[in-house]
């Protein structure tokens, strides 16, 4: 019986090639798009799922308030927090504390490694998280000072060993940057999964910091550079524990007496660290959870649109299949057998589409991975991604359910035909069936219009961010990291100045500067800053940038009042540096009315007074996700900073080679690398750009699938009205009037879809734009343009068939009458 069903189904598909091709194309494109999006969603949702105790792990977050105003919403806090919470609260099973060591170079004899991400971690770290050791003891590897754990990729690259030889690396030594004291290797760690929000290549024991930074890294209640994670005991209520934290703050911070800020602490589940982090000083890899869930909704829309195409086209062909149903019923076929026949056609077409979609997905995998810059694969949907095997089973279930439902309605509708009416020729299409098809077309185009509007808004916001005046000029600015392997001494400032002067002798170099900070990076903050001689009871919080005297000129930042830094403002002895420059936001925060009034004023921070010698205009130090921050600029130099060179646009390769030559002369033994400032700054928009690419591409596919369905439906509908068109032409109807007649019904449906889609799209894009401090306005014309575009696509789709029918010779269609 099943074999017979499949044979007849195959014949029917071949017999109706056009409709089969339209349906197949829509299904293949829809399933392919769905599989590609689901890979991305599965990857993003699977972050940190490999940790054994993920449901019990939380990280401590910290909000700081001054004068009732939130001044920091971050993941960093004080050294004592983790261990004190573990001591005070029985709900806490264990804790771990860590410090971001930045990027370092590892030295072994004469070989120097590339930049490596380093974390300083306590001895609980390796037993707290599920980062398996391949060699060494997780309990003791990071207890002693100067202990070091490498990832296996580092071990292979630096020592050239195979996995079987990892154990012999235990006890060997490496040097970090300019340290003269060796670090002893105590463990080899399995490479960190791509789905870990913590990404690092090297771990060094926290006890090492006690030697280099001092005891405050264990005892301080006001020095803030640490990240803390807590593991709660099984069955503990995190929300109930969090309710105890106000008392914790009262007990240890006594309002703002200890740290200068009112401290509030919270627990963030490790599960949410990747997708739901709006915190400053983020140590991990984060993404926008709203964008990820939006992708999932788009995947569902695309698949629904593809299945709706099948339902619409299958039911629209009801008249054509009516006689077949009548003959089968007269011959003794039951409704169940007819349903089985039509379901088999649906299963055959969907399974064929699934096979083609999988092949197409695998073929397009490199393109997708390059688009999103992530290691995606189909394995993420077959047990290795979010939810494991449960996710794979769920996907199979969803596909099977969708396949059944998309085939069941047409099968049920076709099998319900009355044999007598059909064979007498008195059968007419059901008004209910026509209403269902129209509703499905409205749904398709509602989804399509929402995606069109969303894509348009995302594109305009990205363009706005790209073209917005940031307050500084980063075009053709080459950034070169400073020498990490050159000692700082009394000659350092002269060496840096001489290097810049030598490079500026090249005609292509228009300006040169050095700085500790780069645009786009989170600045450190200075708390409790007060204006000397004012009546301020409480200090304010101001961000800090460390720059040289050429920085403002290189980046063309406007000086509003006073002067720029001069040579005598800097000194090798940092304690002698006493002059500072503020931006306009900092001036206003200190209660001064304008830039000119700030000149000569003094501010108190870091235990001494600083004289304000200049004021510069505000600029966007970070992306437009964040408001402009008040900044104090200080004239320090450091080897570990960055050089910025404004270069001519002609022959940049030659210019870079010239800079590299001078760099190697002044800083021998250091690795030369470079990037352009606009690339550095725009990395902040990486997730937004990926989101824009994905929404644009898959929205196009969704509209394509909907248009395929409309094309097939209009083609079939027009073919059913062929005789009517012939009669109208004989009676004198023009081609234009016939095209308008045939098109208007479909355009009405698209118009209804636009009306429904507009408020949905407005809510969705408003929610997305809430993540930006600076954003475009949602003007009414954007929705009008999107609606006109949708109507244009629908009209183009329908008019092709309408014009073809209107131009047909009426003799051919009326010959049989």
Automatic annotation (TrEMBL):
<dbReference type="InterPro" id="IPR025857">
    <property type="entry name" value="MacB_PCD"/>
</dbReference>
<keyword id="KW-1133">Transmembrane helix</keyword>
<feature type="transmembrane region" description="Helical">
    <location>
        <begin position="291"/>
        <end position="313"/>
    </location>
</feature>
<feature type="transmembrane region" description="Helical">
    <location>
        <begin position="746"/>
        <end position="766"/>
    </location>
</feature>
<keyword id="KW-0472">Membrane</keyword>
<feature type="transmembrane region" description="Helical">
    <location>
        <begin position="21"/>
        <end position="41"/>
    </location>
</feature>
<feature type="transmembrane region" description="Helical">
    <location>
        <begin position="440"/>
        <end position="459"/>
    </location>
</feature>
<dbReference type="Pfam" id="PF12704">
    <property type="entry name" value="MacB_PCD"/>
</dbReference>
<feature type="transmembrane region" description="Helical">
    <location>
        <begin position="778"/>
        <end position="798"/>
    </location>
</feature>
<feature type="transmembrane region" description="Helical">
    <location>
        <begin position="690"/>
        <end position="713"/>
    </location>
</feature>
<dbReference type="InterPro" id="IPR003838">
    <property type="entry name" value="ABC3_permease_C"/>
</dbReference>
<feature type="domain" description="ABC3 transporter permease C-terminal">
    <location>
        <begin position="697"/>
        <end position="810"/>
    </location>
</feature>
<dbReference type="InterPro" id="IPR050250">
    <property type="entry name" value="Macrolide_Exporter_MacB"/>
</dbReference>
<dbReference type="GO" id="GO:0022857">
    <property type="term" value="F:transmembrane transporter activity"/>
</dbReference>
<feature type="domain" description="MacB-like periplasmic core">
    <location>
        <begin position="20"/>
        <end position="245"/>
    </location>
</feature>
<protein>
    <submittedName>
        <fullName>FtsX-like permease family protein</fullName>
    </submittedName>
</protein>
<feature type="transmembrane region" description="Helical">
    <location>
        <begin position="347"/>
        <end position="368"/>
    </location>
</feature>
<dbReference type="GO" id="GO:0005886">
    <property type="term" value="C:plasma membrane"/>
</dbReference>
<feature type="transmembrane region" description="Helical">
    <location>
        <begin position="388"/>
        <end position="420"/>
    </location>
</feature>
<feature type="domain" description="ABC3 transporter permease C-terminal">
    <location>
        <begin position="297"/>
        <end position="410"/>
    </location>
</feature>
<keyword id="KW-0812">Transmembrane</keyword>
<dbReference type="Pfam" id="PF02687">
    <property type="entry name" value="FtsX"/>
</dbReference>
<keyword id="KW-1003">Cell membrane</keyword>
<feature type="domain" description="MacB-like periplasmic core">
    <location>
        <begin position="449"/>
        <end position="661"/>
    </location>
</feature>
């Amino acid at each position: 019986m099943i074999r017979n069903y499949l044979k007849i189904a195959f014949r029917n598909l071949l017999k109706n090639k056009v409709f089969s091709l339209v349906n197949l194309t829509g299904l293949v494109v829809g399933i392919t798009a769905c599989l590609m999006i689901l890979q991305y969603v599965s990857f993003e949702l699977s972050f940190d799922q490999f940790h054994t105790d993920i449901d019990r792990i939380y990280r401590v977050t910290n909000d700081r308030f001054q004068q009732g105003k939130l001044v920091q919403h971050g993941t960093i806090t004080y050294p004592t927090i983790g261990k004190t919470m573990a001591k005070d609260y029985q709900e806490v099973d264990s804790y771990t504390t860590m410090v971001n060591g930045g990027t370092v170079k590892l030295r072994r004899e004469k070989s120097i490694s590339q930049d490596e991400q380093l974390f300083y971690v306590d001895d609980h770290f390796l037993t707290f998280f599920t980062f398996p050791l391949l060699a060494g003891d997780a309990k003791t590897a990071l207890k002693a000072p100067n202990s070091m754990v490498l990832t296996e990729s580092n071990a292979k690259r630096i020592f050239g060993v195979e996995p079987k030889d990892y154990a012999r690396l235990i006890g060997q030594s490496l040097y970090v940057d300019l340290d003269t004291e060796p670090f002893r290797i105590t463990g080899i760690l399995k490479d960190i999964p791509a789905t870990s929000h913590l990404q690092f290549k090297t771990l060094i024991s926290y006890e090492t910091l006690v030697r280099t930074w001092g005891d405050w890294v264990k005892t301080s209640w006001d020095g803030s550079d640490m990240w803390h994670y807590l593991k709660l005991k099984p069955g503990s209520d995190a929300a109930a524990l969090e309710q105890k934290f106000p008392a914790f703050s009262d007990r240890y911070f006594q309002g703002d007496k200890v740290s200068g800020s009112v401290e509030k602490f919270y627990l963030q589940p490790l599960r949410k660290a990747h997708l739901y982090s709006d915190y400053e000083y983020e140590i991990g890899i984060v993404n926008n959870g709203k964008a990820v869930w939006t992708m999932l909704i788009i995947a569902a829309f695309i698949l629904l649109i593809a299945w709706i195409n099948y339902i619409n086209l299958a039911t629209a062909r009801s008249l054509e299949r009516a006689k077949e149903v009548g003959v089968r019923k007269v011959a003794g076929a039951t409704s169940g057998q007819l349903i089985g026949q039509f379901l088999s056609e649906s299963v055959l077409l969907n399974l064929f589409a699934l096979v083609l979609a999988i092949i197409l997905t695998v073929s397009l995998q490199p393109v997708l991975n390059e688009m999103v810059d992530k290691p995606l694969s189909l394995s993420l949907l077959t047990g290795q991604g979010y939810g494991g095997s449960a996710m794979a089973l769920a996907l199979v279930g969803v596909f099977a359910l969708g396949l059944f439902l998309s085939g069941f309605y047409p099968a049920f509708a076709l099998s319900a035909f009355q044999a007598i009416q059909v064979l007498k020729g008195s059968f007419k299409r059901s008004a209910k069936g026509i209403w269902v098809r129209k509703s499905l077309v409205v749904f398709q185009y509602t989804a399509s219009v929402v995606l069109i509007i969303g894509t348009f808004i995302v594109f305009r916001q990205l363009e706005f961010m790209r073209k917005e005046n940031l307050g500084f000029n980063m075009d053709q600015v080459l950034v070169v990291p400073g020498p990490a392997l050159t000692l700082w001494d009394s000659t350092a400032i002269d060496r840096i100045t001489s290097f810049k002067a030598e490079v500026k002798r090249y005609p292509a170099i228009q300006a040169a500067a050095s700085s500790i900070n780069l645009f786009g990076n989170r600045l450190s903050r200075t708390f409790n800053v007060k204006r000397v001689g004012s009546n301020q009871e409480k200090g304010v919080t101001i961000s800090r940038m460390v720059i040289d005297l050429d920085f403002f000129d290189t980046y063309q930042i406007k000086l509003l009042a006073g002067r720029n830094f001069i040579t005598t403002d800097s000194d090798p002895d940092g304690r002698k540096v006493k002059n500072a420059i503020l931006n306009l936001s900092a001036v206003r925060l200190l209660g001064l009315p304008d830039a000119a009034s700030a000149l000569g004023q003094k501010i108190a921070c870091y235990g001494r007074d600083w004289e304000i010698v200049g004021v510069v205009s505000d600029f966007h130090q970070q992306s437009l996700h964040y408001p402009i921050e008040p900044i104090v600029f200080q004239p320090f130099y450091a080897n570990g900073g960055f050089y910025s060179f404004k270069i001519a646009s002609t022959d940049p390769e030659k210019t870079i080679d010239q800079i590299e030559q001078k760099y190697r002369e002044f800083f021998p033994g250091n690795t030369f690398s470079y990037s352009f400032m606009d690339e550095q700054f725009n990395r902040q928009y990486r997730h937004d750009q990926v989101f824009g690419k994905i929404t644009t591409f898959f929205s196009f596919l969704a509209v394509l699938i909907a248009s395929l369905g409309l094309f097939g439906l209009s083609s079939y509908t027009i073919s059913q009205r062929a005789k009517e068109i012939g009669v109208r032409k004989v009676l004198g109807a023009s081609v234009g009037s016939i095209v308008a007649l045939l098109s208007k019904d479909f355009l009405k449906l698209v118009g209804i879809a636009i009306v429904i889609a507009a408020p949905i799209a407005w809510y969705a894009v408003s929610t997305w734009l809430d993540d930006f401090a600076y954003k475009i306005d949602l003007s009414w014309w954007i929705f009008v343009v999107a609606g006109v575009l949708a109507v244009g696509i629908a009209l183009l789709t329908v008019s092709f068939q309408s014009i073809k029918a209107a131009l047909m010779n009426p003799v051919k269609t009326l010959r049989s009458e």
